[in-house]
Amino acid sequence: MEKNTSIECSISNCAYHAQAVDYCTLDKIKVGTHESNPTKKECTDCESFSMK
Length: 52
Fold this sequence. Notes:
The protein is mainly beta. It has one domain (4-46). The chain is built from no helices and four strands. The strands form two sheets. Strands 1-2 form a two-stranded antiparallel ribbon. The protein has a two-stranded antiparallel ribbon with strand order 3-4.
């Protein structure tokens, strides 16, 4: 799959990681949260993540 230069990603164990470079191969991603009131970037999640 080809990298999407609009979406940087460092999660190499994701099925959509470009592997050779830190980018995602998806056309778009869904960002969500596991908190009821997110206040830090650590509170956000890539809901498009899929384990290899």
